[in-house]
């Protein structure tokens, strides 16, 4: 593998409802993601992809099992600790971009740095660097509504990298994009993961995205399986 284990879960289960209405959204999932590794999570709608990502990213609490970021347990952490963890160590990329429309592109990237108290000069330097990395240096003062869908998702990637996270969680990041922009977006995510040594878990139902994965995991009916990847030696049944 590319590097040390950054993100892992054991026995991760999420159940909603009780009795006849009980739904097992995720069942006994186990996973390790390494620094500099891009894991692509595939499965049909309702298979449990988003549930798993929300649990890994500290946005939801498991019914049982645990999640660790490095040697720090995410599941069971206090809300205050989770807020700090999400701000500093985890970058999120959303299908719907989730940008703040009143703010410029530069201000959207800068905001996460403000929240952790980064000095103004460092914020400005890092914002300029990230906008250049994603090809938006000339669009710093434009608002999200003045950008194309592909540009908005590039801006979302820059924002996710604002505080140099250890992990990137991306839920269908190409779902709102045409095929050309989707391919460019996954290529960009892949190159950034490998260049910066970030651990990334990306969900998609687009089979074309698999070409960029170091490892592909299939999820169906809340159960996590495995397929071939550049670093895997074989396939395990779902």
Question: How would you characterize the overall build of this protein?
Answer:
Residues 7-238 form the ABC transporter domain. Pfam families: ABC_tran. GO terms for molecular function: ATP binding. The protein has 238 residues and is α/β, with parallel strands linked by helices. The protein is 31% helix and 26% strand. It contains 6 helices and 10 strands. It has helices at residues 49-56, 79-88, 105-115, 120-133, 149-160, 179-196; strands at 5-16, 23-34, 38-42, 64-69, 72-73, 90-94, 167-171, 199-204, 215-220, 223-224. The strands form 2 sheets. The protein has a 6-stranded mixed sheet. A hairpin with a 2-residue loop joins strand 9 and strand 10 (223-224). Helix 3 (105-115) packs parallel to helix 5 (149-160). It is globular and about 55 Å long. It starts with a strand and ends in a 14-residue tail after the last strand. Mean pLDDT is 90; it is low at 231-238.
Overall pLDDT confidence: 90
Q: Unreliable runs, pLDDT <50, ≥5 residues?
A: 231-238
Radius of gyration: 18 Å
Give the overall form.
globular
Separation of termini? 22 Å
Sheet of most strands? 6 strands, mixed
Order of helices and strands: EEEHEEHEHHHEHEEE
Strand order in space, largest sheet: 6-7-8-3-9-10
State the helicity in percent bands.
25-40%
Number of strands: 10
Structural class: alpha/beta
The fraction of residues assigned to DSSP E strands is 25-35%
Task: Count helical runs.
Answer: 6
GO molecular function: ATP binding
Organism: Antiquaquibacter soli
Pfam families: ABC_tran (PF00005)
Keywords: ATP-binding, Nucleotide-binding, Transport
């Amino acid at each position: 593998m590319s590097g040390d284990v950054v993100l892992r879960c054991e026995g991760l289960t999420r159940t909603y409802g009780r009795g006849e209405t009980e739904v097992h959204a995720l069942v006994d999932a186990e996973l390790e993601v390494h620094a500099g590794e891009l894991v692509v999570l595939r499965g049909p709608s309702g298979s449990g992809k988003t549930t798993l990502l929300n649990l890994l990213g500290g946005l939801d609490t498991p019914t049982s099992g645990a999640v660790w970021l490095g040697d720090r347990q995410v599941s069971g952490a206090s809300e205050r600790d989770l807020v700090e963890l999400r701000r500093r160590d985890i970058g999120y990329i959303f299908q719907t971009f989730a940008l703040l429309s009143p703010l410029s592109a530069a201000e959207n990237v800068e905001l996460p740095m403000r929240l952790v108290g980064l000095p103004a000069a460092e914020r400005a330097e890092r914002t300029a660097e990230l906008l250049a990395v994603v090809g938006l240096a000339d669009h710093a003062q434009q608002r999200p509504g003045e950008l194309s869908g592909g540009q908005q998702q590039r801006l979302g990637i820059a924002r996710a990298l604002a505080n140099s996270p250890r992990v990137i969680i991306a839920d269908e990041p190409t779902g709102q994009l045409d095929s050309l922009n989707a391919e460019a977006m996954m290529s960009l995510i892949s190159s950034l993961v490998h260049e910066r040594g970030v651990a990334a878990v990306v969900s998609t139902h687009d089979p074309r995205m698999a070409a960029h994965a170091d490892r592909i995991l299939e999820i169906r009916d809340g159960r996590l399986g495995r397929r071939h990847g550049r670093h895997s030696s074989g396939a395990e049944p779902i």
